[in-house]
Design a protein that fits this description.
Shape: elongated
Helix content: 25-40%
Order of helices and strands: EHEEHEEHHEHEHEEHEE
CATH superfamily of one domain: K homology (KH) domain
Number of helices: 7
Radius of gyration: 45 Å
CATH topology of one domain: GMP Synthetase, Chain A, domain 3
Distance between the termini: 136 Å
CATH class of one domain: Alpha Beta
Length: about 290
């Protein structure tokens, strides 16, 4: 929706300045229509209309989003190679990018949707910040080359993590003319990802982790594990038996054979002692003197 104001002033130039201040835009972004030039006893009157191009819509929208997110950065829009590029620059540029460009992609998606609704069409809009798009492109191209070599060397498919359409197109384009690998996309919506398939080789079957192709575990490895478990069980049984023998060897003083007394926990700790004397027990007095 176009913004327009009608301003009266003593002359045309002053009226235009007031209109620009009210609209908050630059002179090159508006269209001025002089309704009345003014004179000695008559004021000048102008209608100033903001030119609602796709560039201005995108720029204003992105700046509004940055203000709403309290990000200290500003956006400027321009046209390059048939597409509108909105470049964000400022102290909080990193916050506008987000983790792996997630925030930047979200702003770009919203901007395209808004401009498309306002202009009743679809415009090619790219939102960039601190040359992130170019850096990300170089990273993905290098990654595609390494993974293609890995797929060819191992003769196995390489499945990449889910990516947005922009990044998937970079991977496909990087390996479009490759002689050792080809690509295709799988999955739906947010889970859509790229699969790299080696060319000219027979693909290997993926074995179950820790086992054979038929799904059974390796008998030799299991045998080693079973032997180790048997040894552990045998050691525990032996310790239990040893403990039982020690427990059986333990005797109370009443069970000690005549002529020996208990001095420990093991049978060989019994030692000889004098045999108990017959007769009534004798008690030792500690309080009185000896009677005569």
């Amino acid at each position: 929706m176009e913004k327009s104001v009608v301003i009266k002033a003593s002359n045309v130039d002053l009226a235009v300045e007031k209109a620009l201040a009210e609209l908050g835009v630059a002179r090159d972004r508006v269209q001025v229509e002089v309704l009345q030039k003014g004179g000695l006893f008559q004021k000048a009157e102008v209608r100033v209309t903001v030119r609602e191009s796709a560039e201005t819509l995108a720029e204003d929208f992105v700046n509004g989003v940055l203000d709403a997110m309290h990000i200290n950065a500003r956006a400027t829009a321009g046209e390059s190679d048939g597409e509108i590029v909105v470049d964000i620059a400022g102290e909080d540029g990193g916050a506008a990018i987000g983790y792996r460009g997630e925030v930047l992609d979200a702003i770009q998606f919203l901007t395209r949707t808004y401009v498309g609704q306002e202009k009743n069409g679809s415009a090619k809009i790219v939102v960039d910040c601190e040359n992130y798009r170019a850096k990300r492109r170089d990273t993905l191209v290098a990654l595609a080359g390494r993974l293609a070599e890995k797929a060819y060397r191992t003769r196995r498919k390489v499945v990449l993590e889910p990516m947005n359409p922009f990044e998937r197109r970079i991977i496909h384009g990087a390996l479009m003319d490759s002689e050792i690998a080809e690509t295709h996309s799988e999955g739906e919506d947010a889970d859509r990802h790229v699969v790299i398939v080696p060319k000219g080789v027979e693909l290997r079957e993926d074995r179950p982790r820790g086992g054979r192709r038929d799904g059974r575990r390796d008998g030799r490895r299991d045998g080693r594990r079973d032997d180790r478990r048997r040894d552990e069980r045998g050691g525990r049984d032996e310790r239990r038996q040893s403990g039982a023998r020690r427990e059986r060897s333990f005797r109370d003083e009443e069970e000690v054979p005549d002529g020996r007394e208990y001095r420990g926990y093991y049978t060989d700790n019994f030692v000889k002692s004098e045999a108990p004397k017959s007769g009534p027990p004798k008690f030792k007095s500690f309080g009185g003197g000896k009677r005569r």
